Amino acid sequence: MVLSLKSIRKRFGGIVALRGCHLDVRPGEVHLLLGENGAGKSTLMKIAAGIERADSGELLWHGSPAAFRTPAEAQRAGIAMVHQESLLAPHLTVAENIFLGRYPTGPLGWVWRGRILDHARRLISEHNFPLQAEARVGHLTPAGKQLVEICRAIAHGSSLLIFDEPTSALSSGESEEVFRIVRTLKARGTAIIYITHRMEELRAVGDRVTVLRDGESVYSGDMSATTTGDLIRHMVGRSFEAVYRREPLPPGEELLRVHGLSLRNTLSNVSFALRAGEIVGLAGLMGAGRTELCRAIFGVDPIDSGAVFVQGTALRLRSPRDAVRAGIALVPEDRQRAGLAPGLPTGQNMTLASLEFLSRFGFIDTARERAVVDQHSARLRLKLGSPAQLAGRLSGGNQQKVVVAKWVARGAKIFLFDEPTRGIDIGAKAEVFDLMGELAAGGAAILMVSSELPELLQVADRILVMRQGRIAAELPRQTTQEVIMRHAALEAC
Ligand SMILES: Nc1ncnc2c1ncn2[C@@H]1O[C@H](COP(=O)(O)OP(=O)(O)OP(=O)(O)O)[C@@H](O)[C@H]1O
Ligand SMILES: [Mg+2]
Description:
Blueprint: E1 3-12, E2 15-25, E3 30-34, H1 41-48, E4 56-61, E5 64-65, H2 71-77, E6 79-82, H3 94-98, H4 113-126, H5 142-154, E7 160-164, H6 172-187, E8 191-195, H7 199-205, E9 208-213, E10 216-222, H8 228-236, E11 254-263, E12 267-275, E13 279-284, H9 290-297, E14 305-310, E15 313-314, H10 320-325, E16 328-331, H11 335-338, H12 346-351, H13 355-358, E17 359-360, E18 363-364, H14 366-379, H15 396-410, E19 414-418, H16 426-441, E20 445-449, H17 453-459, E21 462-467, E22 470-476, H18 481-489
Parallel strand pairs: 3-8, 3-9, 6-7, 7-8, 13-20, 13-21, 16-19, 19-20
Antiparallel strand pairs: 1-2, 1-4, 4-5, 9-10, 11-12, 11-14, 14-15, 17-18, 21-22
Helix pairs in contact: 14-15
The structure holds adenosine-5'-triphosphate and magnesium ion.
């Protein structure tokens, strides 16, 4: 075995993250690590990579007991990890981040900047990544940051690479590139641990699989001997009806109308309307303008021309505050940066957008606040020690649910969901869809951006397809993935 973890336990204060986990990784295999949000996947891997220390248990590295006290120690031994949350230094360049802590030095310990740039450029072009070695990381999209993390992990030949949801922010083309890298590394004999919530990736990359549930390893086996149904059952501890089908309601009055919206070179003449009770899907390739459209409607980026009407009244959209007043909510794509206050308690994060309803005479009605938090935690199956737990300390998927809860708690009537299920486990996805269905049934209108076409087809009542800043097509719910892709990708349809 390259790596054996035995009976690993770990608590964070009152929260038990791992209660006796086992994992065996063989040389040259791709080992999938699956489990619901909060199951303990990232924590187990952080222990292997020297970022967290186990309370008890044993780690064998190439058969010998080992304990890595720092990430640098683990790296020297040959373990590298691509993190779920970006741990990059935003003020440094792509090249500097890739070689951070391992700069090539010349005589007298001088750092050779030229060499760093050369190395980085070679690595980037070898893998065809859309990255500029001298760009500042702070200016990159979530996908760009993810690619830098991957470069960083593969820059020095490790014998074990851990990918913690490497593709959750990537387009399908970029994901393909990640699979290619995984296969190349595997062919060179590198062992890989791969965490993902995307069921369709499992067969594409995995040799063996281990499933965690509630901090315990509940299943290990060969992928060829395991059906997807088995995996879901192990993950959620019950059989799961994977197919979510929504019966559309007759749409009600028009809540939102977007007319002729244009924004520099990202949006051109976009028009559509949302009615009460509707869930409208928004499909398109990366860069088609979907996120930009949501941001423009929400008043984040000032528009050049066009108008947004809420229930027939034109909005003056100078800032998100205007949009929020008009009853619009945006659940952004980059939740880590734009949606979550990681240093505040989870409970406060959930009520942040609705303080005016929860306070009286300037004081927050804590009983009502608590009720709102309890209700939404249960609704989204949020694994929470207590509402006082800092949001930044939640598992990646649970952080996403908190941002969704924040806007649902506020009771907005027009929801813009930008990739609402990214990084969310399969059980919670169904909860999020149910919730969207309930919001719609309660008279809300929903625009849902998603790159997961099967999800759009399950949930949306009709689907708008964007291409190069325009609405290229409007399709009924009975359409197919192929038709959507054709409109999203082709120049002329
Ligand atoms: N630093 C921390 N402080 C407190 N609690 C923590 C900390 N890190 C993790 N936890 C808790 O440990 C549990 C396991 O979290 P972990 O991040 O390992 O889950 P995960 O399986 O990676 O989930 P996801 O799929 O959502 O990323 C969660 O309940 C989480 O809130
Ligand atoms: Mg995680």
